Structures are given as C-alpha cells and as structure tokens.
Amino acid sequence: MTIEHDEHKVLEAAIEMATNEEMIGRQDVNDLESILAVSTVDRGEVISAVKNNADTIFTWDYEKGARPSLEKLYEKSKVSMWNGETDLPWDTEVDQEAVVIANQEAMGMGMGVAGFDTAGTPFEKWGDKEWLQLGVESQNWMLSQFMHGEQGALVCTAKIVETVPWIDAKYYASTQVMDEARHVEVFAKYLDTKLSGHYPVNAHLKLLLDDIVSDSRWDMTYLGMQIMVEGLALAAFGFMHMMTTEPLLKQLLRYVMSDEARHVAFGVLSLQEYYKGLSDAEIFERQQFAFEAAVRMRDRFLQQEVWERMGMPVKQSIELVQLAPGREVFQAMLFSKIVPNCKKLGLLDRNDKWLRRRFEELGVIQFEDWTDTSEEYINFALTDEDVRTA
User: Fold this and answer.
1) What is the spatial distance between Cα 377 and Cα 380, in angstroms, rounded to a whole number?
2) Of 209, 44, 240, 43, which Cα lies nearest the Cα of 139?
3) DSSP tag of 379
4) Hey, what domains does the chain have and what are their CATH numbers?
5) CA angle 331, 337, 343 (to 5 degrees)
6) pLDDT at residue 100 in the model
7) Full-model pTM
C-alpha cells in the first residue's frame, strides 16, 4: 500500500510539473514568435544522422496468427502492393499554374486571400502574379514536407521491424517498409518532373522525426509515427484528394491513402493491446509524447519557409493568413484521424483526462467520436474502379 501510495504521489508531481513550458518550450501553444524561433542547423545538408537508442529484438516464437488482427492486416497488405512506376499515369501533362488557379476556384477563393482587407499589409500591392506564385510555392512546400515525412515513416517502420517483439507485427511492418519506399519514390518523382522545386524539411517536422527515431521504447515509434504522423498525413491526403483538380496527383494520393490507412490501423491494433497493461505513470509519458507531437505537427503547417523564399515578413504574413476563412477549420481537420485513434488507445482520459484537456487547448477534441482507423481502414482499399482510372 505504501509503495502504491508513493508511486501515485510521484505521478501527481510529474503531472503537476508537465507544463507547456517544460514540454514544448513555451507556455502559450499559439506563441508565434517562439514557434518561428525553431530552426534547423543543417538545412543545407543532404545527410542527417540521428542516434538510434533502441535494442534490436529477435523472437524465436514464429506462431503466425497469434494476433489475428495483425495477421489479417498482413494478408491484406500482400495483395495491395502497387508499382509507382507503372500504375500511375506519369505521361499526364501538369500545368502547375493552371492547377493552382483551378484549386483556388474550386475552394471558392479566387486569387488572393478572401475575407479580409489587405490595405496596409505586406499584401497590399500584390496582384494576381504574386498570389499565383504563392500558390505554386505552397504546393511545392506541402508536397516536399509529405515526401520528407514519408522518408521518416520509411526509417521508423524499419526500426519497428527490429524492435517490436511480436512476429505478426514484424511481418506486417516489413510490408510497410516497402510501402513507404514507394511513397517517397512517387512524391519525389512528382516534385521533380511535374512541379517546380523542393523545399528542405521543416524544422518542427525534423525535430519530431528525430524524437521518434531516438526514443529507445518500441511503442513510442508506433505512437509517434503510426498514430501521430501517419494519422495526420491520412487526413491531409484526404483533404488534398478531395480538393485537387489535377488527375495524376489525385490518383497518386488515392493509391497512397490506401496504404496509409492500413499503416495507421497497424499502430492502433498493436498499441491497443500493449497499452492496456501499462501503469498510469507509463501512460502519462505516452500522453505527453502525443501532445508534443501534435503541437509540432500543427506548427509545421505555418510554412514559414515559403514566406522566407518569397521575401515576405514571416510573422506578419502568417498572422494575416491565419485570418483567412476556413483556415482554422482546415488546421483542426488535420487531427480528425489522430483524436479518435488516441481515444481508442485509452490515452484521452487516463490520468484525470490529461490528454483530453490538451486537445481541448489545441481546439481538436471535437473529433473524438469519429470512427477510428482500425475500423475504417478497409474503406480506403483500392477498388477495381481506382485501378481502371490509372
């Protein structure tokens, strides 16, 4: 009883000390100056090394199907492979400027930032040319960050193969390594051959990837990559797929989404079992990690690198764009897969609803009762119609 009491007191103290300042380096999650102060020191480097602190785990228990949900996922993955070179219509001509204009019209925006007066702002003298260039750069930036994130997933899933102790999970993770290689390949090819330039990895994304790779605990790789990064990507790809008028990108995203849904489901199905056996103190560490990851992913979508490249005052430009109608809704929607999956894992309400309160602070808790990905991944599977379209 005394030991349990002492452990509870230690946990209470840890929760009390877990302030925003301690976790993310700022008390206000919306402090723009602090967000922009984060930068990478190796922006121009081609190679970046991160210490992998995890043990490589062999298992001599080869009983296939001990975890039926993972075996089902593995069997599904074996018949869902596609070839990025031959299954996508790469001969499609892409006029990037025409695509940007069509996308803006489809969203009811037209050129410029509708809904507020730009008089007296850095955008005051902008005409259609500048707004068009912003759309082009934004597209280059967005797809570049997804490409970098897919390489992060490639590395992290290879780590899962090494570190997860279950043979069914190793089997499935090995198929995801191939999926992620294919995703990096197709995003890189699209950027190289259809668009007009890459962007380096965003500082906030890079810090998150470094944290995921360097953590020694195998389930943190799952939580950081499968639940948080891949969960956000699945939501973002869905939004882009719905919005874009460009047929090659639409088909590319449809293929990638069919894989991503399985990847997120893999995380949910694996961690749901494991987290049931963790103590409150161990769960609290996972809750903190999920919150920190959520903040970093949200921060990366400010795309400060675009404003820098266009020679605009970064902080002022971001503050103005944040006022655009629909911007807040779009940012919140990016968490529409993450929140229900965290709830499925039991992370929202353990420890006096700690993560729930943090997601309320971020303005994303409204998605908690949406369908979690472990139940809906089958809906993302490629159909005969998808294949014929390619």
Assistant:
1) 5
2) 240
3) G
4) 70-80+127-389 (1.10.620.20)
5) 115
6) 92
7) 0.92
Q: Which two tokens stand for residue 290?
A: 């999920």
Whether residue 163 contacts residue 59, with contact meaning beta carbons closer than 8 Å, is answered with no
Tokens 């089902």, residue located: 72
Task: Name the token pair of 314.
Answer: 């970064």
Q: What is the pLDDT of residue 387?
A: 67
State the Cα torsion 120-123-126-127 to the nearest 10°: -100
Q: Environment class of residue 320 by beta-carbon count within 10 Å: exposed (0-12), middle (13-18) or buried (19+)?
A: middle
Provide DSSP, 156-222.
Answer: HHHHHHHH---HHHHHHHHHHHHHHHHHHHHHHHHHHHTSS---PPPHHHHHHHHHHHH-S-HHHHI
Under the phi-then-psi rule, with left for phi > 0, alpha for psi from -120 to 50, and beta for the rest, what region is 32? alpha
Residues 52-73: b if buried by 16+ CB within 10 A, e if exposed: eebeeeeeeeeeeeebebbbbb
Q: What share of the chain is helix, strand, coil (3-state, %, to 5)?
A: 65, 0, 35
Say how far apart CA 365 and CA 368 lie, in whole Å: 6
CA separation, residue 114 to residues 100, 173, 334 (Å): 15, 44, 22
Q: What tokens were used for 206? A: 């890079």
Q: For position 18, what pLDDT does the model report?
A: 78
Identify whether the C-beta of residue 170 lies closer than 8 Å to the C-beta of residue 164.
yes
Residue 70 CA: distances (Å) to CA of 82, 160, 250, 266, 289: 21, 14, 29, 7, 24
With a cut of 70, which residues of the chain have pLDDT below it?
A: 1-7, 40-44, 106-116, 387-390
pLDDT for residue 111: 47
